[in-house]
Every structure is written in C-alpha cells, then in structure tokens.
Write a structure and sequence with these properties.
Number of domains: 1
Structural class: mainly alpha
Number of helices: 2
Strand content: under 5%
Number of strands: 0
Shape: elongated
Distance between the termini: 26 Å
Largest sheet: none
Helix content: over 70%
Length: about 80
C-alpha cells in the first residue's frame, strides 16, 4: 500500500473514532439519567445504531481507498 493511501485513511478513521466516542458517551448519559427502562431502550438504541452505521461507513471508505477510489465524487 502506498504511503499516500495511508494518509488518506487517517481522516475517516479519526472522525469515526470521535463520533463513535460521542455516541457512546451520549448513550451512557441517557442510560444513567432516564428514569424508566422503556425510555432507556427507546432513546439509547439510536446512538448505538448510529455508531454502528458510522463504523460500517468507515470500513467501506477504507476499502474504497485501498481499491484506488480516492475521490468519492468520481462515481457521479
């Protein structure tokens, strides 16, 4: 893998880590603050799903970069 590809993977990975940490902290805050179980599940599942989606999108982006598709706009 070229060094240029590694540099292009840094930004998606860092952004993914920061967003997932934010969603995790938000989830923990909701679990701690909300009074009943139904509210915890209803509002807590959303940040977890968003975090999982963010990880999936990052994985797809890394595969695109490794495959030589550095520019997302090249598809359109």
């Amino acid at each position: 893998m070229e060094n240029n590809h590694k540099k292009k993977m840094i930004a998606p990975i860092v952004v993914t880590i920061l967003v997932v940490l934010y969603y995790l902290l938000y989830f923990l805050l909701l679990i701690y603050e909300l009074p009943n179980l139904v509210a915890k599940v209803a509002f807590g599942i959303i940040p977890l799903l968003l975090g999982g989606t963010m990880i999936y999108v990052c994985k797809e982006r890394i595969e695109e970069i490794k495959g030589g598709q550095e520019d997302d706009l090249g598809k359109y």
